[in-house]
Amino acid sequence: MATIEELAEEDAEEAAEATRDCMRDAWERWEKDYYPEEAMEFDLPRHSAEEYRKRIALPDAFIIVAKERGRIVGVCSGHVVGKGGVASLGWLGVAPESRKQGIGNQLLEAVEEHVKDRGCHKISVVTLPCLTDAVRLFFKRGWVPECNLTRHSWKVDFMVVSKWFD
Ligand SMILES: CC(C)(COP(=O)(O)OP(=O)(O)OC[C@H]1O[C@@H](n2cnc3c(N)ncnc32)[C@H](O)[C@@H]1OP(=O)(O)O)[C@@H](O)C(=O)NCCC(=O)NCCS
What we know:
- The protein is α+β, with helices and mostly antiparallel strands.
- It has one domain (3-120): Gcn5-related N-acetyltransferase (GNAT) (Aminopeptidase, 3-Layer(aba) Sandwich).
- Helix content is 36%, strand content 31%.
- Helix 1 packs across helix 3.
- A hairpin with an 8-residue loop joins strand 6 and strand 7 (158-164).
- It has a 7-stranded mixed β-sheet, with helices on both faces.
- The protein is built from 5 helices and 7 strands, in the order βαααβββαβαββ.
- The longest helix has 20 residues, at 12-31.
- It has helices spanning 12-31, 37-43, 49-57, 103-117, 132-140, and strands at 3-6, 61-68, 71-81, 86-94, 122-127, 144-149, 158-164.
- It binds coenzyme A.
- Coenzyme A (COA) is lined by residues 22, 26, 91-94, 99-105, 125, 127, 131, 133-134, 136-137.
């Protein structure tokens, strides 16, 4: 079992680097034939230590990390959207060598509790159908495909996957 906690400012650099590494790995492993490399490269700078520190200071944003032996092995982030009870998950990733041990599930569970505690009745993620391990994890936890976004960003099809709490 990993330790799950909200990101502390002093861990921002490590968490951002872990996310960028995970994004590059996911591109090589799952996205290569689906999502342009240029698109993935464009996404990387949103996961910098500076960005993470900014988000820690925002009341509606969350960054939750999983640690094993003091090292960050998983990161998920998102935000509560306004006051309407909806949350958006922006990223979920576990380091390749720490996958298939339940850490992704632990992170997702923590996110669901976090947003429920903030009054949310729904959470959604916009993701790529080629990220099959992630999609399977969402489905296992009761998230369902809500709609497709056809020829969306970078002319690629995305899917919106959501979970309702009541
Ligand atoms: C999606 C992702 C976060 C899942 O992380 P994870 O830590 O491997 O997730 P879990 O371990 O909870 O579950 C994954 C699998 O391991 C299995 N598992 C869990 N604990 C296990 C254990 N102790 N022993 C063996 N298998 C185990 C689960 O049953 C699940 O099996 P399945 O894939 O056959 O359904 C990870 O694959 C990842 O980082 N992918 C790239 C990033 C990505 O796609 N992000 C989504 C974009 S938002």
